Amino acid sequence: xxxxxxxxxILVVGATCVDRLLTVPxxxxxxxxxxxxxxxxxCGGNAANVAAAIxxxxxxxxxxxxxxxxxxxxxxxxxxxxxxxSRWLQSELQSKGVDxxxxxxxxxxxxxxxxxxxxxxxxxHTRACLHAPGSCGELTAAEVEGAxxxxxxxxxxxxxxxxxxxxxxxxxxxxxxxIEARRRGIPVSVDVEKDRGKMMERLVDTATLVFxxxxxxxxFARRRWRRQEGDEPEPTFYAVDSSKMEGVDESMxxxxxxxxxxxxxxxxxxxxVVTRGSKGAYHLxxxxxxxxxxxxxxxxxxxxxxxxxxxxxxxxxxxIAGYLFSLDAQNMLLAMREESSAEQILLRLQLQFAxxxxxxxxxxxxxxxxxxxxxxxxxxxxxxxxxRRRLEDAIDGMEP
Length: 400
Hints:
By secondary structure, the chain is an alpha/beta fold. The protein is built from 12 helices and 14 strands. It has helices spanning 46-57, 84-95, 141-147, 151-157, 171-183, 198-206, 214-225, 250-255, 315-336, 342-361, 373-380, 384-394, and strands at 9-13, 17-24, 38-44, 73-80, 105-107, 115-121, 126-132, 161-166, 188-191, 209-213, 236-239, 271-275, 281-286, 295-301. The relative contact order is 0.14.
């Protein structure tokens, strides 16, 4: 019988912290006193959120290989302290199925975990985050070098890894791991959640898959690749049916720079996945068969219809998790279908499944409402064709 250790593995590196969520009627005005409606303590941090969401989804029947093992295994590389909060974080992650056994899940001695206090507004459906860094610090390049120092330990770390994902924190360590992943032919994905300077630039250069919200991606692109008047042609955008798109907004033009700048060996295969909050999300890729590098293909979807919004904390991480999880399922669909539109079907499935996972997460604070594999079975079905059909019914179209 196949074991969980034999399952395809996603390696996730980045932040883990305690999220303390305080739900209030509205964001307080200066000097205003408010009564907190509810308090929730949750495991948080972008990388930890992504890892937990993938692990919970892993038992979904539609993505399984037919044996007893989960569809995917997720291994988290991070640093916490050795205090009670750090031990609780590790226990919470393990209870969701996250593998915390790597030598790069570091428990720094005599140190504390980071804590983020999240103020959630019930009326505005927005949040404010107050971050208190722990004394544990971040993973270092030296710690990664130690983990990769022998071929045996390096092979163990990357055993069955099919994707490496970074939230762009723990920058030097993440870059060293991303370079090793690329050397092994493993694709790299990054979350441009915040512009973190030169180290993030180098991480982005390794990535075939770039995630981010529209605002942050645009800010990063403007800073790094600010276009001078007339120095490069205006990009052309096409829908997946090859029809030319007119009236494209400036943010899409700016974000398309991710497809024109970087390693020429990576750029033809790079995908940028842009989230737009309540307006949905879209893929941006170089146009297949295009004659110029400034030709892009766009495919967009909306959000979960009639979603209940309680807390947006971690919704972007849940979206990323749903997308990465469906990358494995898409290979199954590709094997089942030979029609010319197979690639469009796959792209749409990935975006819709990611939107469904993010939409479900909104219904509760922190990680509490993340959907499980059983939720997928009940709500979407046991086979990939049922999942595809029900997602079409559940997800709206992308807003302009």
